[in-house]
Amino acid sequence: MAVTKRSAKPGATAASEARAALDGAADAGGAGPSQQGRGKLPAAVQFPVAAAMSFAIAGLGYGVVGELSKGELASVTRSQDTWEGVAVLAGWRLLELALAWFGTLDGLDVAMLGLLSHGPTLYLLTTFYTLSPAVALSALAVHVLSAAVPFYLLRPLSGVHRPSAKVANRELIDLPLQLYTTALSTGIYTVVLVLSLRFLLPRMLAVYFTHLPSLEPAYTATYAAVLPVTVLFGAAASTFIFAPFATTGKSEDDDKIGQFDPVKASLQQTVWWNFWGYTAKTKVVIRRTAAAVFVTGVSTYLACTMSIHGIESTGAIAYAAVWVFAALCAGLGLGLVGGD
């Protein structure tokens, strides 16, 4: 019996060390999603597979929504009757996925970005084109899941979105601060949307949007009325922008930026420092905000001009600008909250 006990201890110690080594390796790779993915697919084919899965899920999902709603979504939108229109929308969707994939976003990031970019169109349809909220939420879920599910299957969540992973400043994304940043983003979206509905959009809707049943929702908009919608945008902005920004630690380049001497620097170094001489943490919030602004603007504009009847280009630009400005202000606000 004594011999058995002595032989068991080294085995238990070895097993504990092995588990600790595996946990440490997982935490070390938790800062960003692995390029190899969850499965055994070669890296070169992972994005084509993700894109194909996304289009398949979207096609199936919208078909189910159409059947269950008895064509309600199709009654307020229009399908493309030319190959050029199909190519533009499919090409933009593919570009969205490519930006997310090669930007190393994970499934949760893609879901939040999809909500920020596709939500404005469905809000327009629900508020002014009598689309029911249930159908709008179903369509939004299809859009979000069609991108998030392939990413989740092929790429693990980043350390920011895994509570067990060790990342810098983990305390900055605990529940109280997440609620605080969500409330901040929600407030920004609420104020921008209500003020736009009262002072900017009514004229644009009257001049550049035809087939509108009524403009009354714009004139009667209140902060309380839009709050259920803006809470979703606020939560998405906080998750997509603030969490990765707040948990980014210092890098070696941060020290170089702090030691920059404009007197000794060359012209090229000075130009680079003026345009991109930010810390790694600041670069994260800039990139994330820019991604939200760009994808929201283009997605909303294309949806208005190509998927909804009677919207002129000027009106689509004005409507998209409202949401672009809201995303930009949310990014700036979150950047100030999480700054050093």
Question: Could you please describe the fold and organization of this structure?
Answer:
With 340 residues, the chain is mainly α. The protein has 14 helices and no strands. The chain is globular, with a radius of gyration of 24 Å.
Give the low-confidence spans.
1-31
Give the CA-based shape. Answer: globular
Oligomer: single chain
Rounded mean pLDDT score: 85
Structurally, how many domains make up the residues?
1
End-to-end Cα distance, whole Å, is 60 Å
Keywords: Membrane, Transmembrane, Transmembrane helix
Transmembrane segments: 43-65, 85-103, 175-201, 221-246, 290-311, 317-337
Summarize the structure.
This protein is mainly alpha-helical and 340 residues long. It has helices spanning 2-28, 43-68, 72-76, 83-102, 107-128, 133-154, 175-199, 201-208, 216-219, 223-246, 252-258, 267-276, 280-307, 313-337.
Structure characteristics:
74% helix; globular; mainly alpha; single chain; 340 residues; disordered N terminus; 0% strand
Blueprint of the fold:
Layout: H1 2-28, H2 43-68, H3 72-76, H4 83-102, H5 107-128, H6 133-154, H7 175-199, H8 201-208, H9 216-219, H10 223-246, H11 252-258, H12 267-276, H13 280-307, H14 313-337
Helix pairs in contact: 2-6, 4-13, 5-6, 5-10, 5-13, 7-10, 7-14, 8-14, 10-13, 10-14, 13-14
